[in-house]
Each structure stands twice: as structure tokens, then as C-alpha cells.
Amino acid sequence: MKAGERGPSLLEDFILREKITHFDHERIPERIVHARGSGAHGTFKLNKSLAKYTKAKFLAEEGKETPVFVRFSTVAGSAGSTDLARDVRGFAVKFYTEEGNYDLVGNNIPVFFIQDAIKFPDLIHAVKPEPDNHIPQAASAHDTFWDFISLMPESMHMIMWAMSDRAIPRSLRMMEGFGVHTFKFVNEEGKMHFVKFHFKPKLGVHSVAWDEATRISGKDPDFHRRDLWEAIENGAFPEWDFGVQIIPEEDEHKFDFDLLDPTKLIPEEEVPVELVGTLTLNRNPDNFFAETEQIAFHPGHLVPGIDFSNDPLLQGRLFSYTDTQLSRLGSPNFHEIPINRSINTVHNNQRDGHMRQQIVKGKVSYEPNSIGGGCPFQAMMKDGGFATQEERIDAKKIRARSKSFVDHYSQAKLFYNSQSAPEQKHIQNALIFELSKVTIPAIRERVVGQLAFINKDLADKVAKKVGVQVTKLEQPNGSIPADADPKTLQSEEREPNTKSSEALSMKNTVKDSIQSRIIGFIMEEGVHAAEVNALQSKLEEKGAVVQVIAGSLSPVTADDGTRYTPKHSLTSTASVCFDALYIAGGKNRLKTCWMKKTDREPFFSSMKLTNTARPSISEAEPMIF
């Protein structure tokens, strides 16, 4: 609304004001960590009852299905960063159970960098872009991160995982999920067991190589998000086996590590993973912001039958997650946002606050009361109320860490020793790449010194490439409280009871399936339709997805008049974005697709790489890569 057709806009134009005002307020603070995420709806089906161990109803009735929402994420990068950063991936599951929402907020790596939540701000400050120049984005290859790591030997187990190909998965559908912490199961009789949670992908655990990751980031930084979305849209629903490692309470101290230490895992050779359920993702969100962005996970969202352990990292998360949701979503009523609502109505005395959505009737908002007939009242245990497991504690208040937490290298050795030769080589190369970005020689030297406690050969190879010598660190632990004696807090060198674990190597994962793999068909005019159709039929019969690539997005006409519509042009994609390539017509066709070898190099060079993400098809004519 203006004063005349060419005059000034009028302040009374409420339509303009409302539209602009809403636009100006459309963004909310992104998550401090795990900002870059993708999500989907699905179901969890229990295949084997766990009623012997827990009274949680969704884990007790065999065949029971529970709706879920799962969010995957990177950790360090901002919401607009690439999917293919070298990083741990978040794997968070919200179970909408009849007893309330249960959140299992985990990662694709079973351990973490630190043992105590008080160091979490330091870790994240170190890995985030450096505060003076805000460089680099979504990357750990810089001074502050490795300075922190070089002084924190408790991080070395996690570093082995982060430098492995586990940190650059082929697909969100092809990575494991872990609860990280030790939790407790409590059954109807009140008996407690410790438990670790696992999700194992039906497609197997697969990765890309680092060179592939950097190329994919250039061609399609949304690679993982797009892959998950398209798989679900195409009906190739991602599935994971849900498993548990259960430890009787009386066996808490039988291991050569502390169950409460989040930098440790339980080797499957010592406690096998019992597969009891199936997680299936079968529906994409209707709106990314309303669902994937606004969903609020919290490790303190429990149901009866599941409880916390005294893991000091977990204990700190219980505060942090409530606090960060208040900051990010702006209200203590974030649980009333549709994606966060429980299936059953909640009755309590919480009232008002920003963006209150529930309209509560009646006079009373306190307990006890007589006006409202005593309602709402606390549910008794026999009626499904939550009760924390009783635990006797005879201890003094102290700021100290258990002596059982000083073993920082044994499981780093276990992980590295469990890797195949190519996997070990990739870890070496990743460390060399990362440390080559570190500008301060003393930091590189300290990191190499930490590596020497894990594997001398690894330390020697990395040191040679990053220009430092391997020197023995007299006091490797730099995380010392103000009044503590540094000598009493130094890391102990131990050998793990389990020397090697097959479950830790991707070499031993599922490799016999082409289900949902993306096969690129490179075509040009006059392509042989009979060959194309025959191969496409065989691939799709096995569950593969065929996508046509051509010189342009114009339809390609085959020798029999069939027209194929390309999904990609040669300039918009690269070989690394596919699991295999088929050059329609055979080797001679290459000469007409690309006139010179140098034109083909960027597209084909990485196909010489071999990793677990590449299924074996055929090398016979027509050409398949």
C-alpha cells in the first residue's frame, strides 16, 4: 500500500508488515552440535521379548511395533556444511511408546572423546572453527582440535575411530548406531542389568574413501540427505537390527575396563550382541523444519524399565539437553511441538510459558488438592509410574576421577589391531592429512607421541610424513585439576584382554547385496536398447537403482527408437557419486563419449579405488566400473 502509484509505502500496510515480520523471525538458533541433520519416520518391531530384563512395555511384548523418528547428523559442522565431512555421525531415535517417549541419543561410533561431561565445552570449542578467523568449517584438521587431543590421551580410542573410514560412511543407511553409554535395565521384580544398545544395518557397514568424500562434497554436498530421502521414496526402506549387550549387575567389575567409562566398548567376543528387534524407516518428513529441525532429543526421556548408569558423561548430558532445547526452541513447552508430543496425553501441573499449546481445563495446578479431586496425581509404580532404581551410596563428596578410568590406550590398540591392512593404511593417511594441516610442530609431535602408546609402527609412519620425531611423552595426560598431582593422573599402559575383534573391522561386514545400490548408465544417441534394457532389468531385479547419465539432460534416443530421460549430465555429477557405472555399448563407446583421455580423468579416476562400498558386478562387455 502506497501513497500514490509511485509514492512511499505506508506503515499502515498490515499485510506487508505481517509478511516481513514473520520472514524476519523464521530462523531459530541451530544446534550447537549436530546442526547438520536428516531424519525420517519409521517403526520399531520387537522380535524377541526382553521382559526377563526390563519392564519397558515396548521391549516386552514380542511382535509389538512402536512408531519412531530417527535423526542422523554430523557433529562439528554448521547446518549448511557438507554431508561428507570426516566426523562422527549422530544416530538419535525417538520411540513413541504407550508409556511416553523414550529417546536413545547415540552415534555411529560406540565410544566418545572424553570421559566426563565437564570437558565437553572444551572439546567442542577445540573442534569448531577457530574463533579468530572462523576457519575451518566442518573439519578437525586444524591447530586447536589437535592441540586439545594431544593433551587428552582419553581421546585416543575415539581418534582411531574418527580417523577410520567409519567417519565417512557411504550412506546413512549403511552405518551402525550405538547408545555409547552403559544404561540399566530394571525388570518387574526390581532386578537390574547393565545394557549397551546397538543398531546394525541390514545392508552392512560401508564407507567411501577420503578422496571420494572430497569429490562428492564438491558435486553434491547433500549426498547423504538425498540418498536417504530417495531410498525411502523409492520404497527401499532402510533397516537395522536392534541388539543389546546385557551384563548382570554382579558382573560389573569383571572386565579389564570400567563399564561407566564412555571411552570404552564391550568387545562382542566378551559379551555377544543379542539381536532382538528391527528398526525400519518408511516415511520421509512432510516438512523439514517442523520435524527434523524442531525434534528435541534428550537422554533423560525414559520409560519405566530403563534407567541411567553413573557414567559421568551421561550424567552431564542429562542437564545439557534440557538447557540447549530451552535455548534453541525458546520455551519449556518444546515437548508440545507436534513432532515431540507423546502418543498419550500428559497430565501434570506444569503451566503457561512461551508458546503453550495445550489448553488445560479446571481450577487447580498444584498437588495435593481437594478441589480437583486430587488430580493430577503421581502414578504409582504398579500403575506404570517411573521409579528410579534404588542404589546404596556410601561416599564422600569429591571432585575426582576413578582410578579405573586411567587406561587410555588399551582399546585404541584393540581397534587398530582389529583393522585389515587397507583399513590401517586409511587411518595412517587420515592422520597424516589432519596433522599436515596443523601449523605448530610441537602439537604434531605430541600427537605422534600419543600414537606411539598405541602402535609404534603407526607413530613412525605418521611422524615421517608430518616432519617430526617420535619422542616419549613423560606426562601424556595434560588434563589435570588445579590441585591434583599430575603424576597420579597419568595414563596407564595396558594390553586389552581381547586382542582383536572381528566386529570392529568393516572387512567382515555384509558385502553380498546390491540392494538399493546406485548404478549409473552412461548413454549417448544410438545406444543399444536391448543391452541396456536387459542389464537394467537384471539389476533392478536384485534391488539396484539405475540412473541415466548423458552429455545433457535432453532425452537420449536408442537404436530402436526408445527414449531414455537422463537424471544427470556429465558436468553435474561424477563417478564417485555412484556405486558402479555402465558404459552402454562397450569400450568403443568411450571414444565418442569423451574425445580425450584428459577429459575422462576427472570422471573415472577414483573408480580405481577399492573399498567396501563397491559391489562386484561384472567386468565383461558392456563396460561396468
Automatic annotation (TrEMBL):
GO terms for cellular component: cytosol. Signal peptide: none annotated. GO terms for molecular function: catalase activity; heme binding; metal ion binding. One of its GO terms (biological process) is response to oxidative stress. SUPFAM superfamilies: Class I glutamine amidotransferase-like (SSF52317), Heme-dependent catalase-like (SSF56634). Residues 1-375 form the Catalase core domain. Its cofactor is heme. Keywords: Heme, Hydrogen peroxide, Iron, Metal-binding, Oxidoreductase, Peroxidase. Transmembrane segments: none annotated. It comes from the Bacteria. Residues 476-506 are annotated as: Disordered. Its EC number is 1.11.1.6. Belongs to the catalase family. HPII subfamily. This is Catalase.
